[in-house]
Design brief:
By secondary structure, the protein is an alpha/beta fold. Helix content is 55%, strand content 7%. It has helices at residues 7-25, 70-79, 118-144, 155-162, 166-174, 188-194, 201-223, 233-248, 269-277, 282-305, 310-336, 342-360, 372-383, 393-408, and strands at residues 33-36, 42-46, 49-56, 88-94, 176-179, 231-232. The longest helix has 27 residues, at 118-144. The protein starts with 6 loop residues before the first helix and ends with a helix.
Length: 409
């Protein structure tokens, strides 16, 4: 099985998101919006005008695009459905070049607002018709001779074009823009940075990096119908402002609020032991494992990004331990007095760490809202025996350790 066969296709889908981001960053209309995988790879709506963008991400390919390229005719088939829509424009976007001297070069426009001359429109429309007729004639000839019929991929687009009358063809051509030699998906970071000129150069890389991460998630959520399909320019600009403010003020960015922990995570041994000691079942272990993963991923990202001093996290952890210690000590007193059983008290404390601690413990910063950070950090602390749920967890830890030693002997 060839596991790499889907890579170009997956990269093509990723490129759609990349190009949609750049498209919106280049747009001055606050009410503009973009979506992917709607009526075309990208659909942009600006000032009441719809731009359908067909993307061809093909790094490393040698042959330039021409009027004889299948990609052009596949695209024309899609666009032909919207020829009668007066406010629709069509962008063919490719990472490749256009063949020198080909009619498509007339549709490369350095100034999109400048219309084509009628002579050029007529010439290109006729060249499209000539190629479409050539394909039709060769197919008919092959069919009569009983040979394999050629141009299977190209013909639907040729047929759709030939069904248009002369006036519709010219109107179609007027609204087609060819955009060759576009940036590659691998260059998205650089392309976003270029468009963040108002962001100070010292933090531009970091803002661009986090903006791309946020954008990728929003595109995925849109495709999964977890949000509206269109992403607005206003929403994008608000996110840029938020990121600039947070990074300037050395604030924590919540990167994992809308990210789900992967399925099948292996539960840490000591964390599982602590839950089992107080009668917590498998569901508790699963939820604790996921929360711990999210908290650890977020903390690791903050540290690797250099956004925040480790000391700030250490102070946060001390607050967690202090809040836990008061309740743990109270439980020990209650158990010794016979008011509670050890397991009962421990399970109550575990539940507190999940349901109440996010409200009782001071957040890492005033505007922090996600409970996973406190929940998951407590679970990591329990895995390291920095906190515990059972009133005698330290005794149980030593007993387990001794049993493990005897088994290994």
């Amino acid at each position: 099985m060839n596991y790499q066969s889907a890579a170009p296709s997956a990269l093509g889908y990723y490129y759609q998101g990349c190009y949609a981001l750049v498209t919106l960053l280049d747009c001055d209309d606050d009410c503009a919006s973009v979506s992917t995988e709607t009526r075309d790879d990208i659909e942009q709506i600006t000032n009441g005008i719809t731009f359908l963008k067909q993307l061809k991400h093909k790094p490393g390919t040698l042959y330039p695009v021409s009027l004889k390229s299948d990609d052009i005719w596949k695209t024309l088939r899609i666009w032909s459905q919207f020829v009668d829509e007066p406010d629709f424009y069509f962008h063919f976007i490719t990472t490749k070049s256009i063949k020198s001297g080909d009619s498509l070069t007339y549709l490369i426009r350095p100034e999109p607002s400048v219309p084509l001359s009628e002579n050029i429109v007529k010439t290109v429309a006729e060249d499209f018709a000539f190629e479409a007729n050539r394909v039709r004639n060769l197919r008919e000839s092959a069919k009569k001779k009983g040979k394999k019929i050629p141009y299977k991929n190209r013909w639907p687009g040729c047929e759709a074009y030939l069904m248009l009358n002369e006036s519709s063809r010219m109107n179609f051509v007027r609204r087609i823009y060819i955009m060759p030699e576009q940036f590659l998906a691998a260059d998205i970071q650089v392309e976003v940075e270029k468009r963040l000129k108002l962001v100070h150069h010292t933090i531009r890389y970091k803002v661009a990096e986090r903006l791309i991460e946020w954008w990728d998630r929003e595109i995925a959520k849109a495709l999964l119908e977890l949000r509206q399909r269109n992403i607005s320019n206003y929403e994008l600009r608000a996110k840029i402002t938020e990121l600039v403010t947070l990074i300037y003020e050395d604030q924590f960015v919540d990167d994992f609020r809308s990210i789900y922990a992967p399925e099948g995570l292996r539960a840490p041994l000591n964390m599982s032991r602590q839950i089992k000691w107080v009668g917590g079942g498998e569901e508790w272990i699963i939820r604790a494992t996921k929360a711990r993963w999210k908290a650890q991923q977020q903390r690791d990202k903050w540290i690797s990004d250099g956004m925040v001093a480790i000391q700030k996290l250490e102070l946060f952890d001390e607050d967690l331990k202090e809040e836990w210690r008061d309740r743990f000590d109270d439980n020990q007193v209650a158990c010794r007095a016979g008011g509670k059983r050890n397991c009962e008290a421990g399970l109550e404390l575990l539940k507190w760490s999940w349901y109440e601690a996010p409200k009782d413990v001071p957040p890492i910063q005033p505007d922090w809202r996600s409970p996973y950070l406190i929940r998951g950090t407590y679970q990591e602390m329990s895995n390291r025996f920095l906190v515990g749920w059972h009133p005698k967890f330290e005794t149980l830890k030593e007993a387990d350790h001794n049993n493990d030693s005897k088994e290994s002997d």
